[in-house]
Specification:
Blueprint lengths: L6 H7 L8 E6 L6 H13 L14 H8 L5 E4 L26 H5 L2 H5 L8 E5 L7 H12 L5 E7 L7 H4 L3 E4 L5 H10 L5 H7 L4 H8 L3 H13 L5 H6 L6 H21 L9 H10 L2 H16 L7 H15 L1 H4 L1
Parallel strand pairs: 1-4, 1-5, 2-3, 3-4
Helix pairs in contact: 2-3, 9-10, 13-14, 13-15, 15-16
């Protein structure tokens, strides 16, 4: 599936002779359709009746095998569940988890796949997602392969944070940069997906439509409303705020507070909000009365917490610390 806002990128990639071998790097914000684009690209490469625009036909055996995840000439490398006790079969990784890495053993396990001829007589495709999760040793092993790429083989790398990929690998890829779609385009698409409060979840997702769908279909909207009401309360205290957040919700709290504090600072400096338009007036009052130095300190604290979200040593302690920082920042209002 190629989302409407990515059609022009698809056309650019397939202009002229199009892509056939080597490596393609798909990079840009999370939630804009890079993975769907990568799957469509892989299906098109493997299809025996590929259409003129590069899309797979969707009905041939190769397309059906690709859709089912069983194509013998297609490999997917993703972060492992347990890096310490990693086991994989060379076809694909174990189920992934956020924060894992693509390990060197996974890359080396491609050796037989790369040297043997295609089982169905066409191209071979290796999809690595997210490629910014390559372990340094895995990146080194991949670089050796890309320096002498096998014939009739395409590597597709998908990355949200391209700066984490070594420059030596990036330089050997044809790079496609994805961007956020126009707000109206995203809202129209969310309407077709049946997402409630689309304007709110779109803003909260950083205007990435696919991320907005995830937020809109979970408990995020209700949890955000509850926590936002607490954050707006002039009598909120750190213990009450921390108690309202489960240890497993550290990521949600951290991201919500980052957007909240961004809007507070934006209101202070530019008199506008980006992520919380439905709370604009109430946020303006907090921004006018907040302690700016403590707001900046909280923003730094949130940056530190965000950097450790993958492996938090003590989520409950981090939640309590953030709650204390926030209540100190708004304490001037209470005074």
């Amino acid at each position: 599936m190629i989302h409407s806002w990515n059609v022009e990128l698809w056309r650019r990639l397939h202009a002229g002779p199009g892509v056939s071998t080597g490596a393609v790097l798909l990079t840009g914000p999370k939630g804009v359709g890079k993975r769907a684009f990568a799957r469509a690209l892989a299906q098109g490469m493997l299809c025996v009746n590929r259409r003129a625009g590069g899309e797979g036909c969707g009905v041939c055996m190769s397309c059906r095998l690709t859709a089912a995840g069983g194509h013998p000439d297609f490999r997917v490398l993703e972060p492992l569940v347990d890096e310490a006790n990693a086991e994989f079969d060379g076809v694909s990784s174990s189920p992934k988890r956020e924060g894992g890495s693509v390990l060197v053993g996974q890359v080396r396990a491609l050796s037989d796949f790369l040297v043997l001829a295609s089982q169905l007589g066409g191209a071979k495709v290796v999809l690595i997602q997210p490629a910014d999760r390559l372990h340094p040793s895995a990146a080194g092993a991949l670089l050796k392969t890309l320096e002498e790429p096998p014939s009739r083989t395409l590597f597709i790398l998908v990355a949200d944070a391209v700066q984490r990929i070594p420059a030596t690998i990036r330089s050997r890829c044809f790079r496609l940069d994805f961007s956020l779609p126009p707000r109206k385009t995203a809202l129209d698409w969310l309407a077709t997906e049946g997402v409630a409060q689309a304007d709110v979840v779109l803003a909260q997702s950083g205007f990435a439509p696919l991320s907005a769908v995830e937020l809109g279909r979970g408990e995020f909207v209700n949890r955000r409303r509850m926590l936002s009401n607490l954050l707006l309360s002039p009598s909120v205290n750190a213990a009450e705020l921390a108690a309202a957040v489960d240890a497993g919700e550290l990521r949600m709290l951290c991201e919500l507070l980052q957007r909240w504090c961004y809007d507070l600072l934006s209101l202070r400096l530019a008199r506008r909000v980006r992520y919380n338009p439905d709370y604009a007036e109430k946020l303006r009052w907090i921004a006018d009365n907040a302690d700016v130095h403590r707001l900046q300190s909280l923003i730094r604290e949130l940056g530190t917490a965000a950097g450790a979200l993958e492996h938090p040593l003590n989520p409950r302690l981090v939640i309590e610390q953030l709650a204390i920082q926030y209540t100190r920042m708004v304490s001037r209002q209470q005074a």
